[in-house]
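REQUEST FORM: STRUCTURE PREDICTION
Request ID: SP-0412
Submitted by: Lab K.M.
Chain count: 1
Length (residues): 271
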Amino acid sequence: MTEDTSPTPAPAVVPSGPRVGLFATCLVDLMRPSVGFATVKLLTDAGCVVEVPQAQTCCGQPAYNSGDSTDARDIAKNVIAVFEGFDYVVAPSGSCAGMISHHYPRLFEGDAAWKARAEALAGKTHELISFLADVLKADVAPPDLAATATYHDSCSGLRELGIKTQPRALLDKVGGLKLVEGAIPETCCGFGGLFCVKYPDISEKMVDAKTDDILKTEADLLLAGDLGCLMNMAGRLKRRGSDVQVRHIAEVLAGMTDTPAIGEGEEEGTG
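STATUS: Completed
RESULT:
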């Protein structure tokens, strides 16, 4: 009998870090699933055990912003029940993360039991880039990307969650990527969830001002951490005949830039 001298395969590396529930967000699920896949890769590479609960729903922000507190509370109760067992909840969106971490406790004023559960979930809910940089202090090692990029600071990420330097620090690790700042990176793009529906004329002027600034940078890549903002700006750039590619920062950090950019090809809506 011939002795088998082939090398023994190395055992698979199983993450043993914190158990993270991925709050995928409606827009990522329906319009840009590649952002979800990129998020899972980044979290797994950082040592997290990532789960994506199938029972998750919208965070309730559209109802909340419309003044429909009753429906917003019902949605929040489901999110709390689904995610409260995880060590952390992470969303690739400052908007959704801000809703859970800042507004859920306010929904349950006068209901001590649910307010306590909302506060507990709020305390462990984070936007993706902030989680990697501030909580995990992860040693992210993104692949090279030859491009000139400019970055948009979303309103919720910047103003509610204090996300400003973190994405730029991580992007600085991308070899070949040159980051150029616009004159108004912190200015709202005009999306604002229901704002662009209620006030389309004002929203259009805001996104025109934003895209004017993006084009002046002469960047060939626009990045941000909120898909709503990115879709809004991508749509306006395309209508203006621009070739600027638009992507979520997670896609660049995870090295998943082989899919069509936002607003291009057939990627949107396939998930």
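NOTES: The mean pLDDT is 92.
Reviewed by: T.R.
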